[in-house]
Give the backbone structure.
Amino acid sequence: MNILVAEDDKVSRIILEKFLSSAGHDVVTVDNGRKALELYGALEFHMVVSDWMMPEMDGIELCKNLKRMSLENGEECYFIMVTAKNHNSDILEALEAGADDFLSKPVTKQILLERVDVGKNMLVNTAEAANPREPTNLLVAEHDIMRLPLHFLSIVCSGNGEEDIQPFAQCVHDLGSFLVKCHIPKEEAYMNRFLDRILSAQGEWLMTVSASSFSRMSEDHERIIETLPMLETAISSFISSRKNRFERERDLVRELNMEKDDAGVDSKLDHIKEVVEDMQRSRDHAIARLREITEEYVRLMEQHMEAEEELFLPFARKYMAEEDNAEIISIFRDLEDEKLRKRLQELGSWTHIPLERRICTHNQKRWVAASSQALI
């Protein structure tokens, strides 16, 4: 590979060049970040090995500039930060700047070449990332399957509650089943394999940082799973409140019809008004609670998927070897539920229909009325 080394200390620069050249790499060296940036823009390099503390432009600024330049040019720049700094805060600062790896001085030949080989594999994996059978792409594809039902849950929260609740409940059930039985176990399997790979390939420091940085993924899974029974309870409460309202209104009408005396009718009407107002308050409370939990559930899901797609999956994919992906694909197959996936995809295709046209039958059930009113 063509490797650019930026190191202001002459002895360290010569040692790095010697180590890398001995492994067959073409190496160019400079003594500060500014020169490295200019040279990177003029020549083609696969990888940059840079010191942190340098004159004119330090390693952090160099990394940020190179990553920005690579992004603009549609290229991949693998950046290894080499430094005497070794606190967790330093590691995080380097990773946030865009560094792909972090080596503490003094650097041995074996460790340096191992990390360079890992970087080489990552560049190959990145080039193959468009493969639809690659595990992260399979997970993102499942995100896309879930987004339409989530959109459906979101938009139906704006209606007046007079339509059939069953389609909404079925959507929650199918989406929840897909998450618990298929998608979340797949993500957990991928995350665990990633952490194993980090430990074996990169050492304790990146394992610690990654486990801390991406613990949110597992926490999100727990919160999503905890929200599901709350949502189902809110649906049951709404159904119960509406059923009680219909039954009570029927009984009140029957009592009113049996009243013969005008004074009794007036008294009964006052009583009916009070009862109806009380039932309306109960119904409004049930609807508000259902909307609140639904909005929280949709928000959790959308934020979680976005964080995975923008942060975790692109980062993890670079570290996964071919054998890791093969193992993960095998696990994915064992966790697959084709019937559940198909049911969710059918629901997703149905939610694509404009609201005003949604008169259709799904499993012999009426999904929505002809009006633009939502279900609840």
